[in-house]
Structure prediction request, 159 residues.
Amino acid sequence: MRAIFDQHKAPVTGEPSQQRDMVARLLQLHLGQTAVMIIGVIVLITAVVLLLYGLSKSFTEAIKADDFSKKQKRMVHCIAYAGYFSRGVILLITGFFFAKSAIKNNSTYIVNTDKAFDFIGDHIGHPWFILIALGTMLYGVYMFILGLHYDISGPKKRK
Prediction:
């Protein structure tokens, strides 16, 4: 909601100026460098968990499987795999630059999602940029599917 009603609009350049300012202030504190490193490590761990969660098929426990044919289930799995992978990659890049910022004691390394995509396009390659962007959109599609077909009874117990 803040994005809709906030008077401070995001810069057109996509620069993470607010995040960088916050980290710059944090780095000036006594244990600021450690705090930024901890944030980076937490983001990196979250990225790895997302990647592993997507590969584990655990996400399927939350969906009512009876709502889908076998072909549709495979499609939902592919959508979810692509989404979790893409979100994991973006978080890996973000976490990496938080850690780099802490190591270098320099807030200019901080990236947001926009700059993480720029990093992929500029340094990894345009085809990867397109794949990660599509995967991120597919994550949104998966969340929509999950919202429509969420199994409120919880995961099935295996006997």
In short: The chain has a mean pLDDT of 85. The two ends are 44 Å apart (CA to CA). Residues 16-148 form one domain. The chain has one domain: 16-148.
